[in-house]
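User: I'm putting together a teaching handout on how multi-component assemblies are represented. Below are the sequence lines for each component of a complex, exactly as they appear in our records. Could you produce the 3D structure of the whole assembly as structure tokens, so the students can see both representations side by side? Please keep the chain order the same as the input.
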Amino acid sequence: MTFYALFLPFVVALFAPALTRILKHNAAWVLALAPAALFVHFLGFLGAVADGGRVTGGVQWIPSFNVNFSWMIDGLSLTFALLISGIGTLIVLYSGGYLKGHKHQGRFFSFILMFMGSMQGLVLSDSFLMLFVFWELTSITSFLLIGFNHAEERSRRSAIQALVVTGLGGLSLLAGLLVIWNITGVSEMSLLLSTGNLLRDSPFFIAAFVLVLGGAFTKSAQFPFHFWLPNAMEAPTPVSAYLHSATMVKAGVYLLMRLNPVMGDTVAWETVLPIFGGVTLIAGTLLGARQTDLKLMLAYTTMASLGLLVMLTGFGTEGAIAGAVLYLIAHSMFKGGLFMVAGNVDHEAGTRDITRLGGLAGAMPVTFVAALFAAISMGGLPPFVGFLAKEEIYYGLAKGDTWSVVFTIVAIVGNALMFVLGFAVALKPFLGPKVETPKHAHEGPVLLLAGPVVLALGSLFFALFSGWSHEHFSTPMASAVMGHAAEITISIIPHLGLALYLSLGTIALGVLLYLSLAKIRSGMAALLAGIGWGPDRGFDQAIVGIVKLSVAVTRLVQRGRLEFYITATLIFLALAILVPMGIAGEWPAVPAFPDLYFYEWLLVLIAVLGLFAVIWARNRLTAIVSLGIQGFAVAVYFMLLGAPDLSFTQFMVETLSVVILALAMTRLRLSPQDHRSAVQTVTDGIIALAAGGALTLLLLRVLETDFDASLTEFFNEYSLQIAHGRNIVNVILVDFRGIDTFGEIAVVMTSGLAILALIRVLPRRSRSALSEPPKNPQNAGEAV
Amino acid sequence: MRTLIFRTVAPFLSSLMILFSVFVLLRGHNEPGGGFIGGLIAASALAIYGIAFGVSPVRRAIRFHPMALAGFGLLLAAIAGILSIFSHVPFLTGLWIYPKIFGVEVALSTPMMFDIGVYFVVFGSITSTALALEERERD
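Assistant: Of course. Below is the structure of the complete assembly, with chains in the same order as your input.
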């Protein structure tokens, strides 16, 4: 069942466009059944993983390399799978309303379902290779979704940027996984988790650690790789709600949590993760404070939340891990909801600029309530799951030593700023005097409301029935992250203690900052304008730099002159043969004078005469035809040696190459005469002699070695016996070495296509393309 | 090259060469020959026909674009390889059947199919190149 569950979203994605053509936006109701079915399927595993259990399964994929198509369900992957399929159901419904009437709505459904399948595969993968494949698939589907409005240049740029950053991270992850594979000798997560200290004690631990972080930090938008995430807000809002807050960006956090039992508890882990996470948290909230676009404000708080999660994962205390687990669940629910709210406001009022919105509460009451619930959870107030998370975070961080105090302060400041931004998104558009909006706002249809409302209620129920939810979700997940049994007990009834005081402090700070949000915004704007440079611009500069470099290299080596190519190739050929021979001293001995029949001498004579005819020909066409003389002489000689196949082929190749060369020459409209100067002729002659001489020497040397006849004997013996053919040459070509031949004919066909393309290109156009620099390097960079 | 003698002989020469190329292709497994050489012969047959009558009659005569023939060849070769899946043997393993056609036992095999694929790839690619070059020459 789980095997088919892995494929279900992809299969449904195939039919989504056709279904949408028939049912229009109502196709969402049908398509949402797929993730809903997955959600129900995964609920069935709750019992199995409740006490730290693990369900694995799979099929053999490439047995000879010990690679399996295997999955693993434990507390961590199950919670993720439930979030992906659960929120996925809501997102499919929401897309039905949000993109109603869009001409590519079917395509959108298809993309989002494919993403769902990739993300689900990522968290369920047991085998490293599957993990990597699904990891890259999420990058690719995210690229398709960010670039959904492909007619807009900004969308295209953002899509490419996200693909480049997360794709590079994916390669880093692949390298990291291979290092881990090499160190431990296992290629599956479930086996890796039982290797104990093997990875930690390895001298290559740091290499694996850095490479894995390269994957996790780019995917989870950690500073300084965060810049693609705000740009990804070019995507339609359902994408932002689903990929860029609830699921995909958490893949990096998932990976870190997954590896915590085998990589955690080391100095590197507990230093690098909190520092990068803490910096991302503060940077994200500050950058978010200067935005006025609802989606961008939320995007930066997402970045900050991811920073908080990374910081907690690396902090090293059980309380911090428990806090991370609760916060991850809470964040997926409130941030997904807030994004959908922002989308509703945008959809109904026509703008999402916070300074141009106000007083919508009367027109959109349901949206307002959903927004308020989500913001309360985000701000960490009871009775929502966000409150549980924040209490647990402070409980886990506050430990008394300097290191803990620093990160506690970081967490307080970050949480306070997120509190500000959350309430700004939830309150500013809805309260205050009514502002004239581009569209006359009214409440959206049920498709648009289902998502935020269900998520808001989910946040509430998770906290109200915390005993039940801890037993089924947070405790199994925390146990999986820690690698041993753990228990989360926190409930909404506040306990007097340090954690509660810190929470109260955070709220007080948040209210204070909320009142001076305008000042913070202008201050941040001035500061960023003062800095002037950011990784986003750095990305453009890097891409433009790469394009310029490749243009320069192309100009250097691709001169577009055939003479230059041939000269360079022949010189290199001569050197490549002669230099190693000279260094190794492996010159051939002078061969004995050959003992040939008179007709064989005659053939040699004809070949030599043909060569002289080529050299002394006045006319190029004559030279080409004379080249054939030598070829035919060799072909006849093959016949005498008893190789009819070779001989036939040589005849045909010679004939056709003379015809084609002659045709090409006439087409090039060269002058019929050779106009090279004497010096040039002599230089070219020397190069030709060097290359030809080098090949001769090489062949002579090869003939001096002992001939290993075992292959010949094999083919002689088995050609008829197992391949049913008496023509050994043909049997080798089509049977024994068939896969070589297959590759060769593919090359033949590709070159045929390339020649056709070259001939069809007008000569004038091709020359101007080579000599003119690209007009706008900026655009050239974005086209990469 | 459009002399009367050449133009009179060319159709016969071309058809004989095409026929011969098929003969060479089919006998290839046991006697000198095979798909590669057969394809070359067929390509030169069309080259002769093209030199005698121009490119358009050749294009009309073969109906399909030569690159399409090459693509068909590659596909055929790939199918010949993939057929082995159904016998649970590795890619490109030779499979043989001996049906009786009009009372004569005929050996059919995936290597033969593969060789026919080679024939079409070589034939199509070279014909395409030669025709494209001849065409431009007359512009």
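A couple of points students might notice: Chain A is about 75% helix and 0% strand. Residues 288-530 of chain A form one domain.
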